[in-house]
Design goal:
Distance between the termini: 26 Å
Helix content: under 10%
Number of helices: 0
Shape: globular
Strand content: 35-45%
Length: 95
C-alpha cells in the first residue's frame, strides 16, 4: 500500500496498481525532456512502477499532442476524488 495525498486535504492508502486510470493534480512542474506539465495540472495515471506512477495529459485541442511523463514519485501528485471526471472536450480518449 502507498499513501497518496488527496485533493480535499486528506490522505488515501491505495495500491499503486489501483490508481491507474485515476486523475491526479501535479504538485510541481514536471518535464520529460521535450514537454512540460505545469504545477497544478490535472492528468491521468497511465501506469505504475515500484514507488510511483506514469502520467498522461489530455490531448492538445490544437495539435493533438498528449504529454507522457514516467517515473513520477507519488509524493509529487495528489489524487482527485474517485468519482471526479473531466467535463467536456478535455476528456482524453480511452484505450
Amino acid at each position: 500500500m502507498a499513501r497518496f495525498k488527496v485533493a480535499d486535504g486528506g490522505f488515501e492508502d491505495a495500491r499503486l496498481r489501483d490508481v491507474e486510470g485515476r486523475y491526479v493534480r501535479t504538485l510541481r512542474e514536471m518535464c520529460n525532456g521535450n514537454y512540460k506539465i505545469p504545477k497544478g495540472s490535472i492528468v491521468r495515471v497511465s501506469s505504475h512502477w515500484q514507488s510511483g506512477v506514469s502520467l498522461e495529459s489530455d490531448r492538445c485541442k490544437c495539435c493533438g499532442v498528449s504529454v507522457f511523463i514516467s517515473k513520477v514519485h507519488r509524493d509529487d501528485v495528489e489524487l482527485m476524488p474517485k468519482d471526479w471526471k473531466p467535463v467536456g472536450p478535455e476528456e482524453p480518449p480511452r484505450g
